[in-house]
Amino acid sequence: MIEFKQVTKTYDDEDYIALNDINLEIKKGEFVSLVGPSGAGKSTLMRMLTKESLPTFGQVIVDGVDLADLDKSDIPMLRRKIGMVFQDFKLLSNKTAFENVAFALEVSGVGEEEIAEDVPQLLSIVGLADKANHFPSQMSGGERQRLAIARALIHRPKIILADEPTGNLDLVNSYDVLKLLWKINELGTTIILATHDREIVNTVGRRVITIEKGAIVRDQQGAGRYII
Amino acid sequence: MKQLRRIISTGWTNFRRNSYLSFSAVAIMSIALILLLGLVGFNFLTSKTVDSLQGKVDVSIYFRLDAEEAQILSLRDEINDLSNVVSTDYISRDEALELFKARHSEDALIQESLAELDDNPLQASLSIKATEASEFPQIVSVIEDSPYASTIDSIDFFENEAVITRIQSFSNGIRSWGLAITLVLIVIAVFVTFNTIRLTIYDQRKEIEIMKLVGASDWQVRAPYIAEGSFYGLLAGLITLVLTYGILYGLSDRIAALTGDIDLFAYFSQFWLQIVLLVLVVGVTLGVASSFIAIRRHLKV
């Protein structure tokens, strides 16, 4: 499903090495926790999957496609296949909850009727059925993150990238978000969760990949734990 | 079609929700457009003023008392054939006398003096109006070279020359300065409008980044902003038209009194279609172009 082959990323004329010779394969349906301290390179790794960032050397392959071969005009198509959840939610502040989710469908050219049917369904799955007409500023942190997950899910993506999704949430809300990600994973979606939250990682207990200073230092295939 | 409806409705929703920014953009654009119409009016006023000054300038030829009327009329035809002559007005000796009598009908002394004379003392004259005051020297030189030049007693161009030159330089000055000021003000207005729209888009750069991350193509991000820009232009255009026509209608009398009977409102009414189109096209173009340029730099995600 996802493959990193000898991926290196440097910034500022090779003065700063963000990722160093990463080799990694993630199979379809896996739930992978990417752990490590801030600045270890977790986000850089994820940003490469949506072609927000390009490797300096090496290959990134998603669903059989080498992203280096992907035309600029095909990037939107790639991003529609991948759902993304961020620490800062990245919701459209001038759109309501309904419109935020609907927007992801609109950009793929989905018709009004399908949108009117799918969006409320998904909002109720994440427990926001009664908040459809609220703006993000009128919602709590946990609600915003669940809305972001609803938006990431609306395309029925094959991959969900969650970059510190619980970073701004309290324990109860973090757990809610985690449960949602689990549920999504059970339905067959590959999930990559980047976090530096020990509690979260230990609760998930699946494959755990530890990154430090741009390199993979540990890859625990099952029932992994956060060990630093 | 579905896409277009979606773009327009999204643009409209954004326009409503960003009401503060929309308001300032529309206000700035309205000022720019009012300025534009002000300059249209200003150009009309100056060209009217210059025309009426130019219209007042003519050159008269006075003929010798023994000149034959047939010769004078031939000379007149020759002058009329010149492309830079607008019209000529021939006044024969008899007509001149009648006019003179009529003008001084109250003055008994003059009437009596005229009655004493055996012969008509007045000269026949031909007054010439040219397309431009600057054409007179050339017209006069043609007249002086004409075979009928011998019938001419005097040409008053040489007395009028100083006045004509001054009017000429005055009107050239108004025209070129008016044009220069027009251009400078329009450029400023365009810059201010562009920057206002750029600020409103800069304010939403995060949103643009998010849209791109969710999988929107450049055009899917850009189109609603362009629609929004055209709404700014449309609304600003309508405000401008209502204000301008309202003010001109209300102040029509005063403007006429100030400018010596130039009816600005009548001019704007006569060319209403052109003016409405001008304002709306300029407004929408300005809004669309500003949005288009301003959003470009934020699309690189």
UniProtKB/TrEMBL annotation, chain A:
InterPro entries: AAA+_ATPase (IPR003593), ABC_transporter-like_ATP-bd (IPR003439), ABC_transporter-like_CS (IPR017871), ABC_transpr_LolD-like (IPR015854), Cell_div_FtsE (IPR005286), P-loop_NTPase (IPR027417). It is found in: Cell membrane. GO terms for molecular function: ATP binding; ATP hydrolysis activity; transmembrane transporter activity. Pfam families: ABC_tran. It comes from Candidatus Yanofskybacteria bacterium CG10_big_fil_rev_8_21_14_0_10_46_23. The keyword Nucleus does not apply. This is Cell division ATP-binding protein FtsE. Residues 2-228 form the ABC transporter domain. Keywords: ATP-binding, Cell cycle, Cell division, Cell membrane, Membrane, Nucleotide-binding. Homodimer. Forms a membrane-associated complex with FtsX.
From TrEMBL, chain B:
GO terms for cellular component: plasma membrane. GO terms for biological process: cell division. Coiled coil: none annotated. The keyword Cell cycle applies. Residues 57-148 form the FtsX extracellular domain. It is found in: Cell membrane. It holds the Pfam family FtsX_ECD. The chain crosses the membrane at residues 20-45, 177-197, 231-251, 271-295. It is a multi-pass membrane protein. Residues 180-297 form the ABC3 transporter permease C-terminal domain. Keywords: Cell cycle, Cell division, Cell membrane, Membrane, Transmembrane, Transmembrane helix. PANTHER family: CELL DIVISION PROTEIN FTSX. Belongs to the ABC-4 integral membrane protein family. FtsX subfamily. This is Cell division protein FtsX. It comes from Candidatus Yanofskybacteria bacterium CG10_big_fil_rev_8_21_14_0_10_46_23.
